[in-house]
Amino acid sequence: CAYFERDDMTLEEAQIAKFDLALGKLNLEPGMTLLDIGCGWGGALKRAVEKYDVNVVGLTLSENQAEHVQRTFDQMDTTRTRRVLLEGWEKFHEPVDRIVSIGAFEHFGRQRYGRFFKMAYNALPPGGIMLLHTIVRPSFKEARAKGLRLTHEIVEFSKFILAEIFPGGWLPTPQTVGEYGVTVGFELTRVQSLQLHYAKTLDLWAEALEANREQALALQSQEV
Predict the structure, then answer these.
(1) What's the number of domains the chain is made of?
(2) Taking the model in full, what pTM does it have?
């Protein structure tokens, strides 16, 4: 999602602000190597090179994303190394100084959480930092405390999310994420909710999709 520091920010400005928010928590220094797990279209990596003068490595499972990121890297005027690898984090075994992962954890599935955190912890040096951004859900206890009822609509929506948006994935609770990280050796230093920013982002995405409806249909289909 984007991060709206001001109410009058455009979606594009807020998306850059989101990268700045995430990267700013990593204490990056020139010459460090940053790994982006699930790098998407490379926005965070590009911003990291431009603003922090670091070397970057991106991991993605999408050929289209890898090609786009490589083109972006090729156009950058910098002496820092820039790599995008078409592979999952399970195959990455290089040391890095910092790790960022935005919107990928939801796709992993609970059975892979332990291995993911172990891989990340082993890749980092002592004092290394990982910024993990993921969608979470309240625990059943928290939901009951807030008076949230498990309705048929919520059940069907949850099934849709897991089947169509995050197939094979899972939405964890904040406590679950923290527990897996601490188990392998991480220290959880901060948790920040971007819930309201995500809601505004979704509204703007929906508006943009509606405004470009015909182009979207040409790329995909009415069913999609």
Answers:
(1) 1
(2) 0.85
